[in-house]
């Protein structure tokens, strides 16, 4: 299995730069998981596609405004930090540029001194460990001075920070949005609930490592970045109940998918309440233990995410769907359109 097997040609103008308004008016490619049949719809059509007894499992992680622009304390030279993972009290692992400025012991100021960060360690991979200090609550200060860490392929400035959060985001800790959920509105979720579609939550704090390009030509040599997850008992119970009643368990996004499958894989196919770290890498040949359906966006060529979709839908059907998406001029990546992969509901 080669990286190049997952390449497709994507015109740059199809990379969505701004989100569609309202959220649920993005396009939706509906794919039958069994036959591969494709239908072109809109996201709000999920109100008809989903059936009573179906369960949506959503990632309620909230994105940190993790991009900080500041200056070196003693001479005012520019620095950019991107927070990756909390390591202790106001202690963070970060990426920075220009890296040569960020030596151990050097201090940087953000928001006119609202946050001060001192480099305490330079890691072998070039990341830094930084100790922050501030008046009052760290996260309050971060909200005031931080910017949303939009992916590098988005060049437009985001007018509203909340547009890079899901409407159900709750647990602060992600370095990137679980983007499949960006299409839901509160009104749409209320209508789905009214119809008898249930919702449950997991938390997986999305790290930038999820989007790290696969560099090795042999896919199996790729090492996934580890991310923290929490799977509550309530969600486990709802999944078991849904399965017992013949409903479909549908993950909203690859992060929800990876959380459920990681826990089931670690417990011999059984789903249990759990809290920990996962670096699960799902690619064709993987046997799914929990999922029946998946709602997701369109992912980068040669990425681990398109490999996950290929594992769930099948390689040929996935690459065909992407070819059709390009031809039909769907919008791609974080602010782009969505794909819904479902089996027909058995009567």
Give a concise summary.
The protein has 347 residues and is an alpha/beta fold. The protein has helices at residues 46-49, 138-145, 186-195, 233-244, 254-266, 304-313, 315-327, and strands at 27-32, 38-42, 55-59, 61-63, 67-72, 78-88, 91-97, 107-110, 115-122, 128-134, 171-174, 198-204, 227-231, 249-252, 274-278, 293-297, 338-342.
Give the topology, please.
Layout: E1 27-32, E2 38-42, H1 46-49, E3 55-59, E4 61-63, E5 67-72, E6 78-88, E7 91-97, E8 107-110, E9 115-122, E10 128-134, H2 138-145, E11 171-174, H3 186-195, E12 198-204, E13 227-231, H4 233-244, E14 249-252, H5 254-266, E15 274-278, E16 293-297, H6 304-313, H7 315-327, E17 338-342
Helix pairs in contact: 6-7
Structure, described:
The strands form three sheets. This protein has a nine-stranded mixed beta sheet with strand order 2-1-17-16-14-3-12-13-15, covered by helices on one side. With 347 residues, the protein is α/β, with parallel strands linked by helices. The radius of gyration is 21 Å and the shape is globular. It has seven helices and 17 strands. Helix 6 packs across helix 7 (315-327).
Estimate the strand proportion.
25-35%
How much is the radius of gyration in Å? 21 Å
Order of helices and strands: EEHEEEEEEEEHEHEEHEHEEHHE
Number of strands: 17
- What percent of the residues sit in helical stretches (DSSP H or I)? 10-25%
Mind summarizing the main beta sheet?
A: 9 strands, mixed
Q: Order of strands side by side in the largest beta sheet?
A: 2-1-17-16-14-3-12-13-15
Net shape: globular
Unreliable stretches: none
How many helices in DSSP terms?
A: 7
Q: How far is the first residue's CA from the last residue's CA? A: 37 Å
On the 0 to 100 scale, the average pLDDT is 95
Alpha-beta content class: alpha/beta
